[in-house]
Amino acid sequence: MKKHIDEDNNLHISFGFLAIILKDKYQLVYTINDILIGLLFLLGTIFNMLLGWKVLGAVMYICGSVLLLIRPAIRICRLLGVRRLNKEKTWR
Prior knowledge:
alpha+beta, 15% strand, three-stranded antiparallel beta sheet
């Protein structure tokens, strides 16, 4: 497995003849977070209504709500960037 970052800041991960190109890592995290939110709320509904597992359903709703709160944090991380300046560069 080889990794490198190109000039457009895309991450390339090679597995033999296959290569995965990650164009925007924050968008990927954001999308995975959305999928998890949907799954947790779906499971919470199933546990509450169909199976009668009220406590586990409530836990799923709480986890989904926490992930909904993480969404703006991911967006903020994407918009803000922090980098270390070289010693020659200073803020003016």
